[in-house]
Amino acid sequence: MPLQDVTVTIDISKPSALTGLGTPLILAKKDGASFYKEFDDLDDIKATFGEDADSYKLAKQIFNQGDSRPDKIAIATYTLTPEAPQKQIKAVSVLENYYYNDWYFVLLDTGSAIDYKEISDLVEEKELKVAAHIVDNSTDLELLKEGMYDRTFVIQHHKIKEFLHAALIGQVGSKPVGSLTWKFKNLKFATPQELTPVQLDEIHKNGGIAYVTKAGIDQTSEGKVISGEYIDVIHGKDWVKINIEKRIQHLFATNPKIAYSDNGIAQLEDAVRTVLEEAGQNGIIAQDDAGQFLYTIIAKRRNEVSATDRAARKYNGLTFSFELEGAIHEAKINGAILA
User: Fold this and answer.
1) Which of 13, 79, 148, 337 has its Cβ near the most Cβ atoms within 10 Å?
2) Is the CB of residue 95 less than 8 Å from the CB of residue 203?
3) In what order do the strands lie in the sheet with 318-323?
4) In sequence order, which residues have a C-beta less than 8 Å from that of residue 172 and are 6 or more positions away?
């Protein structure tokens, strides 16, 4: 695998509120003023939205995934009132309003492929977090495929109301980032679909994921986003970006100042190295034969930075890259049986 460059922009005016990368956000239709709330109890969600609401059913599927489930689910509400368009609050507008709250995966409770596309367009623009959708036909999947999204995964399944995309997030999303792939995952309360090899290949070609039975085990058929990148790669790169941002912000906040000197620059470099070492331990970054994690950090010395940047107290001289560990998704094994 090639080295992966990750750009981290430290913006103190808009710090990330993320403390974990497994919390789902459900965009839920509900009359009245829009609100954002985090729930840790399914009964509270039922009391707020009713057990017939798709938002409740999504949350139930997430929480039903056993020990793997997240500790909480965030819900933000939107309003559709065709008789009073001026009172409508679109789901994508609500997503924009709460984008930097503490959640990572976003799901729309109900909508068309066009609605899904609006959500995915915004997530792609922000270059952070992941959207998840479910469709029951190839036409909708092909429409989403046109976006070639790096930050959207889609499950195509004939029982759309089983909300398998929510189940997959509940099963995998809250586990340590880098510790697993999203392929081969068995989901609770999910029905496998009988597909021919040609049908399954068509779903994969369109960037989708199916839920099938292989070797007697019900499982997800792939672990990729629409563009063909692996979900765990996107998740891992975001983990690195967010944790470097948090560590450097903490460095700024807990020191009288970080001197614009080689010693000060070394403090920034140490903060980045600490995160990359942890990423290696989590399985995000690969190791060489000696067990050393495969990353590089390059930091310009003070005298290599322009006088203009020094006067403005800007340091843009630190870059890093790393090699992803990845996972085995296919294997061809040759052998012989000797009589």
Assistant:
1) 79
2) no
3) 3-5, 318-323, 295-299
4) 68, 180, 182, 185
Tokens 């003023």 sit at which residue? 33
Residue 93 backbone zone (phi > 0: left; psi -120 to 50: alpha; other: beta) = alpha
pLDDT tens sequence across 239-281: 988 888 888 888 988 999 999 999 999 999 999 999 999 999 9
| N- to C-terminal Cα separation, the chain | 40
Q: Which of 68, 70, 67, 37 is nearest to 55 (CA)?
A: 37
pTM (2 decimals)?
A: 0.88
